[in-house]
Design brief:
Two copies of one chain form a homodimer.
Chain A (H helix, E strand, L loop, with lengths): L2 H8 L3 H9 L7 E2 L5 E2 L2 H16 L4 H11 L6 H11 L11 H17 L8 H15 L6 H20 L7 H35 L14
Antiparallel strand pairs in A: 1-2
Keywords (chains A, B): DNA-binding
Pfam family, one (chains A, B): MerR_1
Protein name (chains A, B): DNA-binding transcriptional MerR regulator
Chain lengths: 221, 221
């Protein structure tokens, strides 16, 4: 198909497609003339993935390249590519060893993961992300309790089982990974939105039935 | 205390504190001379909240002002302020009514929330955020199934109960809200990190035991 049809079928403007081509996020089409190229269904699928990663997952371009490189690397087994993708989709925050709040938080993270016995690599960015959030709670003087962390871990594992259940290891490799990667980001958004909606429901039940936006103040806007 | 001690106790650089003062994210201290001001424990607590919202929750300054305005508004009941805060902490994405994927996703959102019977306001930003993620799945040709959404909703509600359980309605109003607002953001980060760690565990169990980063390719970096 021509770039105009690729744009129509993907809903991505031609100018954006050309930008992705320049940025090597989308492979070049087959040249049919000096000014025209022909694009395949594979281009359409890749374009939809890139769009989802940029627009929905808000993954920086540099990290999208790493994800696509893993997807396209036939030497990697499925678990490795999934791990690569999950790692690439998350930045590793700065560590602050020696800071008392950070060190207490790092102990909480290690103790929780040891207790859960999850198979996670020591250098997983998510481990540092968890420590960073727990350190901020420590600094606020409201550290997370082990019971709280066990509860979140159970909710998170329940979600992760649904995430991974969406991956079809029998499907063509690239398709399985494209979907796994984008769905992981999209499900994170869904879960986050559902949690905010659930907070409103639980808060209404616990603190009164007034809908959250009937008050005065900024929320009423 | 002087600004230097405020900086030392909060771990926030003096230059950053001065920036927050200029941006009205932190109330001015009591002037003790033309060049010095005195800051209280309340300043320290507010500074820690602002820092957590900026650094950890990554809430834009303009929305932090809305959150602080709600915290400081004595006319708002606890549920209203919590709702205001949750709303202020989430941007409302653009809607695309008329787009087939969007419209199918909006139907999924409405059907799910009707089935769950959660008390959420119709204009909750999280409702649009959920629709946006579901629309992207529709566009990928991999729509979320009702079973999947029920599963995520159950995990999200489990997390939200833990979130709200952290709020002490008997505590001094400002303190309860400061903690509720920052903890909500911090718990979102914790939950997100735990989900990524759980994905690694579930993926290892399902697709092989190789740790995610032992492969070649970008993930091995």
């Amino acid at each position: 198909m021509r770039i105009s049809e690729l744009s129509r079928r993907s809903g991505v403007p031609v100018a954006t497609i050309k930008y992705y081509l320049r940025e090597d996020l989308l492979p070049k089409g087959a040249a049919v003339s000096t000014t025209q190229a022909d694009y395949s269904e594979a281009h359409l699928q890749r374009l939809r993935l890139v769009r989802a990663l940029v627009e929905v997952a808000e993954v920086p371009l540099a990290r999208i390249r790493a994800v696509l490189a893993a997807v396209d690397n036939p030497d990697l087994d499925l678990h490795t590519v999934l791990g690569t993708a999950i790692f690439a989709m998350s930045a590793t925050p700065e560590s602050h060893p020696g800071d008392p709040a950070w060190d207490r938080a790092a102990e909480q993270t290690d103790a929780l993961l040891a207790e859960l016995d999850w198979r996670v690599t020591p250098d997983s960015p998510a481990r540092v992300q968890l420590t960073r959030a727990l350190a901020a709670m420590q600094a606020l003087g409201r550290p997370a309790t082990p019971e709280m962390l066990r509860g979140y871990a159970s909710a998170a594992h329940q979600a992760a089982e649904l995430d991974v259940a969406c991956i079809d290891p029998e499907a063509p490799r690239e398709e399985a990974l494209l979907h796994a990667i984008s769905l992981s980001a999209l499900m994170e958004q869904s879960l986050s939105a559902l949690r905010r909606l659930a907070q409103e429901d639980v808060s209404a039940a616990r603190f009164g039935a007034a809908p959250a936006r009937t008050g005065k103040g900024p929320g009423a806007r």
